[in-house]
Amino acid sequence: MADMEMEEDHPRLILHNFLTEDECKELEFIHKSCSTIGYRPNVFSTTLSHLIATNSAHLIIPFLPIRDRLKEKVEETFGCEYELVTEFTGLISWSRGASIGWHSDDNRPYLKQRDFTAVCYLNSYGKDFEGGLFHFQDGEPKTIAPMVGDAVIYTSDGRNTHSVDEVTSGERLTLTLWFSRDSSHDEDAKLILLLEENVLHKSNNVPWSLLPLPASDNMYWFSPHQASNQDIGFDIRLGRLHALGFDVYYSRDMNFGSDLSELLMEPMQLARRDQLLDHKFVNVLHSLQVAQFYFWKGCKSQAFTNEVQSGKAVRLSRSQSEKITQVNSIFLKDTKLVETVFQSADRCYFNLATFLLQSLNGKIIHVGVNRDTMLCVRPVQLGDVFYKISWTAIGIV
């Protein structure tokens, strides 16, 4: 890790390889399986409060050691040990067309509590995306080309006014945190309240489950320039599945006179090319988490593909294909836009058996809602952060 010297007039620090590639990939998995529409056009975000609200609080665990390391580094660098709280933690990605002009991070009255900013880059300029260079208005370095694992730390005030160039292709992904000396803005206190409410709700005759519960549909609808008109654009959950080569199939007939947004909360199956996968998922967010998990781990780990039973799939019938086309006509109105916003993963080898029955040791079990609707695997190896977590929500328990 190489640290660059800070300028007195423009306090900032660049840390190379602050995060490991595995940490970056884990956070990328969480973002691509949980994100919603962000705060600016062509931006997507995943906040810790959103993870709690969508019954995915277990996905917060990988953030915790990273947040602690960043806060300690900020306090050490700027001489404010034991003074700071974390004000905000979020995964933010910028797709084609996203940019932001010159600004400081405390440039609004409701942001004045922000004292320090930390941005960790989870993928690389020139490899995963084009454009999106980071510029400081004054001081050195003037320009930063994001590289996976690097972190930029700076004061949130006008001494570090900055901008980000427009992203021209790919998806630029960051972990962004703000720190404050004002304890009334402690993010952890707010998250604990949300978790307590969640636990109380579940204890009130609600079965305990870690299966994801999607947020309201308008949080997932992407359209150019964030137009509210749903006649154009696409649902980002189906969009990300489409980029991975999947279509969504619902067995029930669709009544076009009713509110079809509820359809995405219902059990469904995935299709790939001319095959319908046998397993049912609880809802579309559940299927997205399983698919993203597979493309994170399944394509790259030989251990992940050992001793796997054959998967089950059937050839799509004409009527099933027609239903898939109907779903796409509603939720993927612009597939060319999808392919522009999200990079295709077709370059990654797909093995149907390993997708359906993913296992670290070949011991496969099936449990879940009604014991028959969810693929589950019990991994025995606990060698890294991911496998120390209960991953029931994506079919890994």
UniProtKB/TrEMBL annotation:
Its EC number is 1.14.11.7. Keywords: Dioxygenase, Iron, Metal-binding, Oxidoreductase, Repeat. InterPro entries: Oxoglu/Fe-dep_dioxygenase_dom, P3H, Pro_4_hyd_alph, Pro_4_hyd_alph_FE2OG_OXY. Pfam families: 2OG-FeII_Oxy_3. The keyword Mitochondrion does not apply. It is an enzyme of class 1 (oxidoreductase). Residues 73-181 form the Fe2OG dioxygenase domain. PROSITE patterns: FE2OG_OXY. GO terms for molecular function: iron ion binding; L-ascorbic acid binding; procollagen-proline 3-dioxygenase activity. It comes from the Eukaryota. Its cofactor is L-ascorbate; Fe cation. GO terms for biological process: collagen metabolic process. The keyword Hydrolase does not apply. PANTHER family: LEPRECAN 1, PROCOLLAGEN-PROLINE 3-DIOXYGENASE. This is procollagen-proline 3-dioxygenase. It comes from Gossypium mustelinum. The lineage of its organism: Eukaryota, Viridiplantae, Streptophyta, Embryophyta, Tracheophyta.
